Automatic annotation (TrEMBL):
Record-linked PANTHER family: ENDONUCLEASE/EXONUCLEASE/PHOSPHATASE FAMILY DOMAIN-CONTAINING PROTEIN 1 (PTHR21180), TYPE II SECRETION SYSTEM PROTEIN K (PTHR21180:SF9)
Record keywords, A-Z: Iron, Iron-sulfur, Metal-binding, S-adenosyl-L-methionine
Organism taxonomic ancestry: Bacteria, Pseudomonadati, Pseudomonadota, Alphaproteobacteria, Sphingomonadales
SMART domains reported in the protein's UniProt record: Elp3
Cofactor list: [4Fe-4S] cluster
All copies of domain Elp3/MiaA/NifB-like radical SAM core, residue ranges: 59-286
GO molecular function: catalytic activity; iron-sulfur cluster binding; metal ion binding
The protein's name: Elp3/MiaA/NifB-like radical SAM core domain-containing protein
Recorded superkingdom: Bacteria
């Protein structure tokens, strides 16, 4: 078979990268090339494919350096025993592609991951070299996210952080037993050791930056990780507990969740069907509750059903409120901010506006309706100047009343 063209390689390696969800570019330091210095920017917008949590539109060239791999993780389409078409970019080719796409305003940065070819150290060296070419040879000031390899030499991972805005290491699966069974070449302790070293490097470099003006920056957008959902028997309670420990131990910016997707020639130990995508969505919602709404991990776990999984028909915040109805209703004119954040249907922005508004006047139900998408979801849990839910909060059928109604999609809907 002849050598693959750049377009053919791009088709293979961009498609292979789609399974990695951890590619948001929020949190990076703002850099630009105004004044004729350097090339690229993290401030602009190109042809966008996603939005970061801070609302900025992002577009990244998201590829693997290679989909060759010496590992044989059962859930991975690029495992060594998989019968897929293989391709490989050199470090120079990746740098050239990134610059070419950026100059055409297609992207604002690079997300680079890779299978393991030859060895972990060799692969990590090539990824670092691609970032080095961009930063040093071309003074590229756009966003770079490098997926680092925990089995690689710590010094190589450190070099990755000197060039990248964000680095990440996938923990892969929520439980150590699941990782041992489905990814026999990987070690949970080794992964966490690498994450711990990256955390200490980030802290050390931030401290150095405060004391020395020209100290090098190190992964200013922090580190993140990803967990596969539904490939093993781990429950949502297991996943929430794992995510909480990762946030606490390694100061992660984000934990991403990726619903397991059946792959060609799959191993017999894997499920035959993927989990419902709504399960992945519920885990992101639970993650949001811990990060922005003040819920402890144990409280999110209390929202799970008897099987340890979050309900699919309602969101985790509503599920928790229905289990702890004795906490409600709350007086919107008297309750604390922390209490109001527990009210289903009220987001952080709405709660902040309520706190600001009630300083000037007593709030009525119509005032709350202007701040939320669904006043029907809020009414059972709030008291306003002209509203009391009476027995509504305690109704046995309240869950069915508040759960979103299933709708039949129309093929030719406008």
């Amino acid at each position: 078979m002849g050598a693959l063209s750049t377009i053919e390689k791009l088709g293979i390696l961009a498609d292979a990268a789609k399974y990695d969800a951890s590619c948001a570019s929020s949190g990076t330091a703002k850099k630009n090339s105004l004044g004729g210095k350097g090339i690229g920017s993290t401030e602009g917008m190109g042809i966008c494919h996603a939005y970061a949590p801070d609302g900025r539109c992002i577009s990244l060239l998201k590829i693997l350096m290679t989909n060759h791999c010496i590992f044989d993780c059962h859930y991975c389409v690029n495992r060594k025993s998989s019968n897929v078409r293989r391709a490989r970019f050199t470090a120079q080719e990746i740098a050239d592609l990134t610059l070419s796409f950026y100059r055409r305003n297609y992207i604002e940065g690079l997300f680079l991951s890779s299978g393991i070819i030859k060895s972990s150290n060799f692969t990590m060296e090539q990824m670092v070299e691609a970032a080095r070419i961009l930063r040093e040879d071309h003074d590229f000031r756009g966003y770079i996210h490098l997926k680092t390899i925990p089995e690689a030499d710590p010094e190589l991972v450190h070099q990755a952080g000197l060039y990248a805005d964000r680095v990440s290491i996938n923990v892969e699966l929520p439980t150590d037993s699941g990782l041992t069974r489905l990814a026999p070449d990987k070690d949970a302790r080794q992964i966490e050791t690498a994450m711990g070293k990256t955390k200490s490097d980030i802290v050390e470099m931030k401290d150095a930056k405060k004391r020395f003006r020209h100290a090098p920056r190190f992964a200013p957008a922090g580190q993140s990780t990803q967990m596969i959902v539904g490939a093993d028997s781990a429950t949502d309670a297991d996943i929430v507990g794992k995510a909480s420990r990762l946030y606490d131990n390694f100061r992660l910016r984000r934990v991403y969740y990726s619903a397991f997707s059946p792959i060609p020639d799959a191993s017999a130990v894997l499920p035959l069907k993927r989990p419902p995508l709504i399960r992945e969505h519920r885990l992101y919602q639970s993650d949001w509750l811990m990060r922005f709404y003040g819920y402890a991990p144990g409280e999110v776990m209390q929202a799970t059903e008897a099987d340890g999984n979050l309900p699919l028909d309602i969101d985790p915040k509503l599920a928790w409120a229905l289990k702890f109805r004795e906490r409600f209703p709350l007086d919107v004119n008297r309750a604390s901010r922390e209490e109001l954040l527990r009210v289903p249907g009220l987001g952080v922005t709405a709660v902040n506006r309520i706190i600001a508004s009630r300083r000037h006047r007593t709030l009525r139900l119509d005032d709350i309706a202007k701040l939320t998408v669904s006043i029907a979801k809020v009414r059972p849990f709030l008291i306003a100047a002209d509203w009391r839910p009476l027995t509504l909060t305690d109704r046995a059928d309240l869950r069915s009343l508040l759960a979103p109604k299933a709708e039949q999609l129309e093929l030719f809907a406008a």
